[in-house]
Amino acid sequence: MTRKASESRPSIVGMGPIGETIAQRAAAFDMPIRDSSRQLKQDLLCGFEPSSVKLATWAGALIVGVLGREETQWLIDADILRALGHRGLLINVGRGSADSEVALIQTLASGGIRGAGLDVFADEPRVPKELQGLPNVVLTPHIARSMWQPREVMSQLVVENVRAFELGQRF
Fold first, then answer.
1. Does residue 160 have an active-site annotation?
2. Where is the D-isomer specific 2-hydroxyacid dehydrogenase NAD-binding domain (predicted)?
3. Of residues 124, 151, 152, 163, which has the active-site annotation?
């Protein structure tokens, strides 16, 4: 079953550079977007939902783009996956430590969510065998940013940071 893009409900956990880019692209397709970032982003056309569980309940696809920090470890747990429901999708392009792989594997295997797209894993480069055989999972080896344009931008940032360091500036 398919639906119009404007009827999709992407929800973003982690409204940093990755989340902002996803929100801008989704907005171009008139998708209603919500996020649960720590701070409300006034300049983005997103609905703000401070509760991650409520965000997952509303979502058609829960997109995770958080950084790997102590406060984001296992952020996506069994409660959030349950709230996402059997029609929901989990997309993680942030950090593998953000979702509880044990809860995710159990939820996927039982049909608790429709599926998952995972570009990151808790113990990279090792991917849990239980994920590899599931028909409702798409796995990629942390290549979401492996196009040449993002690599070029990242390389330029390295050069700018080295120059700033050499000049005694903050980088």
1. no
2. 4-144
3. 124
